[in-house]
Every structure is written in C-alpha cells, then in structure tokens.
Specification:
By secondary structure, this protein is mainly alpha-helical. The chain has 2 helices and no strands. It has one domain.
C-alpha cells in the first residue's frame, strides 16, 4: 500500500469519526444536552423545596385522616 493510499484511508476514517451523522460537528447537539440537564436540575430543586415547605401541612392532613379512620374503628365519628 502506498503512502498516498494510507493517508487517504486515514483521512476518510477521521472524517467519519468527526461527523458521526453530524453529531460531533454540530455544536447544538452538545448545547441542548447541557440545557436539558440544567432544566432537570432546576425542576429537582423546585420539587425538593415544595415538598419541604408543604411537609408539615401534608403531615397534618394525614394525621387527621388516620384519626378519622381510627374513630371509625371505635364506632365514633
């Protein structure tokens, strides 16, 4: 195999690796992944904050439900 043939084969292989259907050469692909990760992190933070702030209120609701169920078992209302 000649030097020119090897060089050409290496160039074609490098071009295939760089394009990968345009994923590696498209800056939008990596950028959108980062944006999705940021949005997912923000949603997780908001969800944790909401659960912490509503925690005592939700606990009180469940305690009321349990008391009513226990009252039904004793024949009371």
């Amino acid at each position: 195999m000649s030097f020119a043939a090897v060089t050409s084969a290496v160039q074609r292989a490098a071009l295939r690796l760089m394009t990968l259907d345009g994923r590696l050469t498209d800056p939008q692909a990596g950028q959108s992944m980062v944006e999705y990760a940021i949005v997912a992190a923000l949603i997780a933070v908001v969800a944790m904050t909401a659960v912490q702030s509503m925690g005592t209120g939700i606990e009180q609701v469940f305690q009321n439900i349990v008391q009513k169920i226990q009252g039904l078992g004793r024949g009371g209302s």
